[in-house]
User: Which sequence fits this backbone?
């Protein structure tokens, strides 16, 4: 069974992640998921690839903390967070978040909270590779 | 020795991801920032987070220990 919190270069399978989440509890009545994927256009420029860099050990520790906090804060039955650190093409998956709860409201709220917190707290950086050159991305709210 | 790490845009500006500094008793985080900031002002102008041993630090007067790992980081942009 794959760890519920991972940083990896390879793509993830949403189906496998959701199955793993569901396997953790039969009391789960609602699952909310978020997938972040690579756009081919940003700030008026074509983007051909996106490269990621992470402070791996700190990022993984912070993602584990974030998952535990989400479970506690929203009363989740389980949660999963997977972030790719590699170079991706437009349309490729970047990040997967899933929140499983007894009811939908907690799942939706926790899923949104986890991706918002991840963007602020997890030491990962993205660089857009464009025909005009490369540029590190300035964080968006 | 103190291990100093740089990531993303900060690493680009320092032109390395890692360097070592000699440890001396009484050394503080501020000493490291002052030393490297003079050499790499462009990189340090975008540093917004500092971690010591993978924990974010706000107190620049923090005393360092031998073998500490310091990371200088720009704002995160994952996800």
Assistant:
């Amino acid at each position: 069974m794959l760890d519920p919190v991972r940083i990896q270069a390879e793509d993830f399978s949403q189906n496998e992640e959701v199955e793993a989440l569901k396997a953790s509890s039969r009391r789960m009545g609602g699952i909310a998921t978020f997938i972040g994927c690579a756009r081919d256009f940003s700030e008026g420029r074509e983007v051909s690839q996106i490269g990621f860099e992470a402070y791996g050990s700190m990022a993984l520790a912070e993602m584990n903390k974030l998952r535990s906090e989400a479970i506690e804060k929203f009363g989740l039955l389980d949660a999963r967070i997977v972030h790719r650190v590699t170079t991706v093409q437009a349309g490729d998956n970047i990040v997967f978040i899933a929140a499983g709860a007894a009811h939908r409201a907690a799942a939706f709220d926790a899923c949104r909270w986890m991706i918002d917190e991840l963007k602020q707290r997890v030491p990962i950086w993205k660089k857009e590779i464009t025909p005009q050159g490369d540029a590190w991305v300035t964080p968006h709210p | 020795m103190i291990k100093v790490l740089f990531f993303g845009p900060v690493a680009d500006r320092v032109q390395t991801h890692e360097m070592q500094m000699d440890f001396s008793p009484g050394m503080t985080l501020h000493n490291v920032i002052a030393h490297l900031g003079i050499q790499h002002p462009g990189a340090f102008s975008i540093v917004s987070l500092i971690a010591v041993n993978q924990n974010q630090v706000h107190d620049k007067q923090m005393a360092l220990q031998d073998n500490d790992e310091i990371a200088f980081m720009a704002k995160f942009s994952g996800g």
Observations:
- Chain B is about 30% helix and 25% strand.
- Helices of chain B lie at 8-14, 29-39, 41-44.
- Strands of chain B lie at 2-6, 18-21, 49-52, 55-56, 69-73.
